[in-house]
């Protein structure tokens, strides 16, 4: 044996001895914070503690829906002089990876492009396609190298974004089905990268509460995580979000392999944790848990980082808007007409009339359950409680029969509360004990003129609903998703909450009595 060959054997042995045969990694997920970073200091304390203890053996993941939900996040989105609050938080720890959520897209391309350009970590969403190039607009996946092991993280977003977010907020982007994208990319990653651990980071809920779409529908499932975990072999671990329901569960896929699935919940209520032991030549050993962060320990440095954002927002959110003569509660909508919804109806009617468009009928729902606004002076902050989302306003053309079917579906789907639409501009009765399809009896228009099942009416509603959100137009009326846009008469450029605030400011004193357009028998 010559000296060169002896040296090669020794070098190979030395390298082999330096390659770890085993390592344990901790993966932590946060999701759906919706800008509630003032409630996140407990999470921040725990994350910082783990960062100090584990170093790069901690992999920190965020699953999106960060850019909408609080007054100070809204203000930060409008502020181009300072770094965005979301990028400041993501960079603070920093996170290792972030996935895009639908409410991040809804903030608008000008906002999310700016925010993600400020972040120091990869931003994932393999199924969001740049129509100009035909390639993923965001990074599709990332390989994290830890102790000689490869961890692949694939990001995917529910394509139902197109049913909630108008084109003007997402120009040039196409959203592909999550299920087929998961299969395509996991196969590509396995063949190209040969990862030791395959992780999904999905902004898509567990499973559909009600799925009447055909299996080959181009959008697939809004909430597809359970289906992918069971039917797309290759994943070891999937973190998901979107449906706000905390979960830690093991499922067995069609190949007979275990897939561990976690969702940390929403708004800083806790963390989802997976502890993974990787061994060369062996399957990953995985344990999972949900970590509640309800202790009194807070990260003071994190709070100090937030303070300038809170200071800049305080003046805005404390501005007085209008006088509310009586206390109103969102849950009163279940009992019949209530001011919580009827003031939205009034605002919608008057806003489109001011735009030169006559609306015959208005549809609206309370957007949060269990909320109360006390009589007295309302501030901007109160309107974030009253109308928490940044939908636009839209007018659609519906026949009388379609109006009835829309209301039938809304009454049937009154849980969650944001799907419980009531109508104004018409007088109708609901017979609660009858089945769906037979509950709603429309008596007349609100002014007493006849209501015609065959006539086409202009119906004003929020843009979420007008694009198919809640499935009132799809499952209720029976329209195909691709046909919905053909019924849109008009859509506002501004968000409805801003419109609502301006309307209330001009009004000065809000109403003390509901419209009383419907009753329950």
* CATH topology heading of the largest domain: Purple Acid Phosphatase, chain A, domain 2
Tell me the strand order in the biggest sheet. 4-3-2-1-13-14
Instruction: Kindly state the number of beta strands.
Output: 26
Compute the number of structural domains: 2
* Overall pLDDT metric: 93
Oligomer state equals single chain
Helical region count?
Answer: 15
CATH architecture annotation of the largest domain:
4-Layer Sandwich
Tell me what you see in this structure.
The protein has 521 residues and is an alpha/beta fold. It folds into two domains: 31-312, Metallo-dependent phosphatases (Purple Acid Phosphatase, chain A, domain 2); 319-520, 5'-Nucleotidase, C-terminal domain (5'-nucleotidase,  domain 2, Alpha-Beta Complex). The chain is built from 15 helices and 26 strands. The strands form seven sheets. A six-stranded mixed β-sheet has the order 4-3-2-1-13-14, covered by helices on one side. Strands 6-7-9-10-12-11 form a six-stranded mixed β-sheet, covered by helices on one side. Helix 10 crosses helix 15 (496-507). The chain is globular and about 80 Å long. It starts with a helix and ends with a strand. Residues 9-17 have low confidence and may be disordered.
